[in-house]
Amino acid sequence: MKTKTSTFTGHLAALFTIIVWGTTVISSTKLLNGGLSPAEVIICRFFLAFVLLNIIYPPRLKFEGIKRELMYAVSGLLGVTMYFFLEIVALQYTKAANVSVIFATSPFFCGVFSLFSKKADKPKFNFFIGFALAITGIILVTFEDGFTFDLNVTGALFAIGSALSWGLYSLLSKTIGTYGHNVIQTTRRIFMYGLIFMIPTVFIFDVDVKHLSLLADTEMLFNLLYLGLCASGICFLTWSHATNTLGPVKATTYIYGTPLVTIIFSYFFLKSQTLTVQLFIGAALIIAGLVISITKSTHSENKKTKRRKK
């Protein structure tokens, strides 16, 4: 049974996660520009996260049947291998802001996918109103330079693929949360399968052990540790908590804020963004869309709960 405290921590976990994830494209871009390949960034990132989770909570998760193991494997494929590989490849073809705005459509995909799931919460009408407002704001924020859609088709397709993968992963994460295991154990098992599915990329893409020497640069090392330990190791745990307490549909609405975070950090660290009136209007619409998507659905759920008690 959900309590006000658990719901509050769920919102807090989702907010923290999105703030961190909104900055990851900055770190990924710096690592790619520094000479690492997409496959090298992803493999090193999740290997570090896997090691961190083993240190934090060593007890192993026991085998509980093929069905559950397949759930972990598919989650690893979608939420780790496919999502992050598609995103980081997209960054090679288009701007970080473009990738971020397309990823922000993943709540919509999650909402649509949930309609075909018997267990997942179904999106309410206000969810789609909030989505429309948020996407309008996101477009204003991202394309504030006169709506010149400088978007590479290849990059867009990879980014859309990453949004689809994350939408499905969020639904699976909620199901895995019902197994009753420690979230570190389940996340570590998902990471394990994600790393296994990454093995073929070693032979297909540019992976060279000599590139590890690039990490002698302090900035490169910091960005990799940030991605591995914080954005992956810690944030996957906080995201699991958010989806378990809020539900995947409500939790993913926080992703609307990702482009806004990305734009702000791009301004300070990549020097590729200017602050304009249009940006502030877009930011207001994003926040309004997020509030509408979350607040009204919460009120309707509280009314249903009161009716059941009566």
Characteristic key phrases:
310 residues; mainly alpha; globular; disordered C terminus
Annotate the secondary structure layout.
Elements: H1 4-33, H2 38-56, H3 66-90, H4 96-103, H5 106-114, H6 125-142, H7 153-177, H8 183-204, H9 218-246, H10 248-252, H11 258-270, H12 277-309
Helix pairs in contact: 1-9, 1-11, 2-3, 2-8, 2-9, 3-7, 3-8, 4-7, 4-11, 5-7, 6-12, 7-9
Quick description:
With 310 residues, the protein is mainly α. It has helices at 4-33, 38-56, 66-90, 96-103, 106-114, 125-142, 153-177, 183-204, 218-246, 248-252, 258-270, 277-309. It contains 12 helices and no strands.
Describe what you observe in this structure.
The chain has 310 residues and is an all-alpha fold. The chain has one domain. It contains twelve helices and no strands.
Shape: globular
Helix content: over 70%
The CA-CA distance between the termini, in Å, is: 17 Å
The major beta sheet can be summarized as: none
Radius of gyration: 19 Å
